[in-house]
Amino acid sequence: MCSRQLFGGILRYLEHFPHGGYFKGKNFVFDHRISIGSDDVDVLGTCLICGSPFDDYSSRCRCANCRMLVLVCYSCQGKHEKYACELCQKYEVGKNKIHVLQNNSSILDVSPNSLASVQVESETMNNITNPSCELFRRNVLDHTGKLRILCLHGFRQNASNFKGRTSALAKKLRDIVELTFIDAPHRLPSTYRPTDSCFEQGSPSLMAECKRRFAWLISPTSVSLDEQRWEIKQQFDPLQFQMQTEGYEESYLCLQNAIQRMGPFDGILGFSQGAAMAALFFEHQRRNGCSSDFRFAVLCSGFAPSTMKSDKSCIECPSLHVFGRGKDRQINTEASRELAELFDSNISVTIEHDMGHIIPTRPPYISQIRSFLMAFL
Fold it and tell me: Domain Serine hydrolase: where (predicted)?
C-alpha cells in the first residue's frame, strides 16, 4: 500500500480487487456482514477452542463475559454453547461463571441460570403446537413454491457485489423467495487507474483482478473505459443520479433478454439506480400496452427518473418502497418519495426506516417486507 490513507478505505479496495491485492485477511465491519475479505484462500484466524484455521465470525459466538465476538469453528460450535475470549481467560474474568478445562477442549456454563434458560426454550418449543402457529407453518414453511425475484443492482455495482450486499435479506427470506442477479449493460471505468509505479513493482496483474462496475443509466458525459494510467478519481457527487439520463434503451433490452433466458419471474427488486430502472421498465410496458412481466416491485433507496417526473399517469403494479428517513446520504428522502408517487397509491406500501443507503433486515422492517411478499404466494 502506501503510507497515506487509502482512498475509499479497505472495503472499496476489496471491491475492486476481490483477490485481495496487497491486503491479507479479513476486515471487520459493523453491520450484518461482520467481516469482509478477499477471495484469497489463506486463513489467518484460528478457532478459540481447537486452534484450527478459521476466520468466519458468527453473531452467535460471543464471550459470555465481555460479549466480544470470538472465532469458533463449525465443529466446535456444535459442541459448546458458552465461550470465554482469550483476554477473559487470561485475566480470569467471570471465573465463577465460566469453567475452562485445562486442555482447552471444552468451555461450559455451570451457572444455575443456564438450566433455567433451557427450561424456557423447551416451553417455547411446546407453544408452537397451538392452532395459530400451525396455520402460520402451513402458509409459509410448508409452501412448496417460492417467489422468483429479479434483482437490479445500483450504480457502480455488479451482480456479484449486490448478491453479497443482500445476503442477509436472502437468508431471512429464504423460505419464500429465490433471488436472481444480473449485471447492467453499461460498464464503468475503475475508481483506480494504473500508475508507472504499479508496473515498476510488477503489479499489472492487479488490473485483471479488478472487479467490473456497471450502470443501468449513465450521464451524457460519462468517461471512456480506455484508460492509460491509474489515479484517484474525483470524490463522490451525491447529486450525480440527477445527471444519469442516457443508456435506457440498452438496459431495457438487457432486462428483456434476462426475462427470456432466466424467467419467468414473480417480481423485480431494484436498489438505488436499479429501482429507477425498474420504474422505467414498467412505464415502457404501460405506454406500449404490453402485459407486465412482473406481479410486483420492491424498490429500495430509489429515485424518480427525470424523464418520468412530468408524467401524471401512475404505474398500476403492486409496489413496496423502502428508503431511509433523512439518513440516506446518496439518494435523498424526497427523491425516493417522488418515485413512490409514480405508482398507484391504492396498491403500494411504503417503509421508511431509520438507516442509510441500505436494504434493512432488522425488525420491524424485515417483518414488513415479508408481509408484503407473503401476499403473492
Answer: 146-368
Amino acid at 244: Q
34 sits in the region (left: phi over 0; alpha: psi -120 to 50; else beta) called: left
Q: Please pick, among 328, 336, 348, 353, the residue that the annotation labels catalytic.
A: 328
Q: How far apart are CA 373 and CA 178, in angstroms?
A: 12
Residue 272 designated active-site: yes
What are the cell numbers at 268? 423485480
C-alpha cell at 319: 409496489
Query: What stretches of the chain adopt beta strand conformation (E)?
Result: 26-28, 35-37, 98-100, 107-109, 147-152, 177-182, 186-188, 213-215, 267-271, 296-300, 319-324, 348-353
Please give the average per-residue pLDDT across 277-293, as a whole number. 91
Domain 147-188+238-375: top CATH class: alpha beta
Domain ranges of the chain: 147-188+238-375
| Known active-site residue 328 | yes
Q: Residue 195 in contact with residue 230, Cβ under 8 Å?
A: yes
| CA–CA separation, 246 and 224 (whole Å) | 14
Question: Which pLDDT tens digit goes with each residue over 201-245?
Answer: 445 455 555 568 899 998 876 654 434 444 444 454 555 666 777
Q: Name the nearest CA neighbour of 1 among 190, 191, 156, 197.
A: 197
0.90 surpassed by pTM: no
Distances in Å between the alpha carbon of 75 and those of 50, 80, 82, 195?
Answer: 9, 9, 14, 46
Identified catalytic residue from 251, 272, 319, 336: 272
